[in-house]
Amino acid sequence: MEPSHATNGANPLRPAVVVTGASEGIGLAIAHRFAAAGHPVLLIARRPEPLAAAAREVKSRSGGAAHALPLDVIAPDAAARIEAELVRLGLYADILVNNAGVGLGGPFTEHDAAGIAALVDLNVRALSLLTRHFLPAMIARRRGGVINVASLGGFAPGPYQAAYYASKAYVVSLSRALASEVRGTGARVCVVTPGPVETRFHARMGADTAPYRYLMRAMSADAVARATYRGWRLGFRVIQPGLFTPVMSLLMRVTPWLILVPIVGLLLGARYTRKDR
Ligand SMILES: NC(=O)c1ccc[n+]([C@@H]2O[C@H](COP(=O)([O-])OP(=O)(O)OC[C@H]3O[C@@H](n4cnc5c(N)ncnc54)[C@H](OP(=O)(O)O)[C@@H]3O)[C@@H](O)[C@H]2O)c1
Predict the structure, then answer these.
(1) Which of 106, 120, 133, 180 is 20 to 30 A from 272 via CA?
(2) Measuring from atom 25 of ligand 1, which residue has the nearest CA?
């Protein structure tokens, strides 16, 4: 299916914000933030019930339009299904927030192959293909753009979260390169790089008892969403929520990897809990 344009037959399409991984955590907070600013939002996640509840919550809090599309974004036809749902709703993707992501905690050699493949499919492949699908129409309209959610972990190799950190390094690199490619077109690409955030993400990857959970203060998902919205409005290419994140990312970029990587490994390593699902 072709990317949506400004009309659907006789009816003009309205700009919307599409958020993947929006049933909870950072994605839900970002959906709240854009909805509160008056944007219609399309929330996407796999499990229909929590997603529908999240969309109801966004709608009742903002008083605006919030729609739910239950979808696994790693499905080969994910972009086409999002496009079709937007057209059905009389909307087009003005801003795409690629937020859905998964982590894998523990030694790389202990992960099963399917887990690694699922991480790469979601954090790297789906994010790239959704961006590829929606960005050309944004450029053609000379407005909107893509917000990719990476991580502070995208600035360094991460022993005991090796595949996760590597996937986020890809997201940082891709986003910064695309931000440069689309410069002057009217469309934008930016990347958000939060440090630890208080969501169920850490428990899901079995990392809730890793040392960084005790040593680094986690931000709230709301604070990350506020920073994301503000950074997007101000035209930032890299949005580093909070005060701690920019300082840490600077230190990570100036410290030689010979020193940095073992320190990151100490923060991420040690004890791992059973994955909760
Ligand atoms: N939490 C942190 O400390 C932290 C820090 C830095 C960056 N980040 C990044 O921020 C993003 C969001 O993290 P979070 O902490 O909010 O995660 P979370 O609480 O685990 O929520 C993940 C969301 O993504 C959805 N999701 C997972 N797989 C999906 C798929 N294949 N297709 C569609 N939706 C999917 C989940 O719903 P379903 O399970 O129903 O699909 C859920 O709505 C991730 O990219 C993560 O890497 C998180």
Answers:
(1) 120
(2) 21
Angle subtended at Cα 148 by Cα 143 and Cα 151, rounded to the nearest 5 degrees: 150
Ligand 1 centroid to Cα of residue 185, in Å, is 30
Domains, the chain, ranges and CATH? Answer: 7-268 (3.40.50.720)
Residue 8 confidence (pLDDT)? 58
Q: Could you tell me which residues come within 8 angstroms of residue 258 by beta carbon, excluding any fewer than 6 positions away?
A: none
- Measured in angstroms, how far is the CA atom of residue 87 from the centroid of ligand 1? 26
- C-alpha 272/C-alpha 96 separation (Å) is 34
Could you tell me the pTM of the whole model? 0.95
Question: In what order do the strands lie in the sheet containing 91-98?
Answer: 66-70, 41-45, 14-20, 91-98, 145-149, 188-192, 238-239
Is residue 7's pLDDT more than 60? no
SS3 136: helix
- How many whole angstroms from 44 Cα to the centroid of ligand 1? 11
Q: Is 170 a catalytic residue?
A: no
